[in-house]
Amino acid sequence: MDEKQLALLEKEVEENPKSVFAHHRLAIAYWQAGKLEEAVKAFRRLFELDPPNFEARINFGTLLAQMGHLEEAKKQFEYALKSYPSSPEALINLGLVHLHLGELEQAKECYLKALEALEKMKAHPELTEKKKVKIDASEISLLVNLSTIYVEEGDFEKAIECCRKALEKDPNLALAYNNMAVALYYAGRHEEARKALQKAKELGYPVPEELEKMIMGQDGQG
Questions:
Q1: For residues 212 and 198, what is the distance between their CA atoms, to the nearest angstrom?
Q2: What b/e readout covers 172-187, taking b as 16+ CB neighbours within 10 angstroms?
Q3: What residue spans define the domains of the chain?
Q4: CB-based burial of residue 3 (10 Å sphere; 0-12 exposed, 13-18 middle, 19+ buried)?
């Protein structure tokens, strides 16, 4: 987004100060241009006109999370969920913020609700192929994040199962192999853990050196 395009969008807002669409376009443009503070101000002006705007709340929350303002981002996603309580998009984003804040139980609750919502969406045969792809991508991300939470909670078998389900959808998902290796290791299944970690490395995942030493150094005895 160059300065000329930004100037045109700023003029559009100036000429149409009550246009929610114009404010939203300008906020996104500032964001894309790396002018994050200006983007924040544009979003806030938008919400003065249209507080419940779901799409804008999701975008604003994502921007705030990117800026490291996690508590404020959480409020945006919670606000969005007031309008659409079963929105997978809002639940996934809120879950990710909870995860970054170390609020594992809340993150898990969001992810499980999102998975349930995605299952309901998949039950509708009229979904377009584009939506199906998006749903699958969301489900894969959810499963991998859930595996991280289950490892932290010490529920290693559930973590392994989440990784397996993710790999059924994307057999080349290096992060899932990495997470599976960790869960398998702590479950005492060392040989399987080594194989999973090796697969993660083959797929290009940047396996931490300490993790590699911990898992690959085992003698394979479970």
A1: 9
A2: ebbbbbbbbbbbbbeb
A3: 124-222
A4: exposed
Tens digits of residue pLDDT in 59-79: 999 999 999 999 999 999 999
Record the tokens describing residue 143, joined without a space: 């499963």
- Which residues, 6+ apart, have CB-to-CB distance to 95 below 8 Å? 106, 107, 108, 109, 110, 111, 114, 142, 145
Domain range 124-222, its CATH number among 3.40.50.720, 1.25.40.10, 1.10.10.10, 3.90.930.60? 1.25.40.10
- Averaged pLDDT in 10-residue chunks for the chain of 222 residues: 86 94 96 96 96 96 97 97 93 95 96 92 72 83 95 96 96 97 97 97 94 78 40
Question: Is this model's pTM higher than 0.70 or not?
Answer: yes
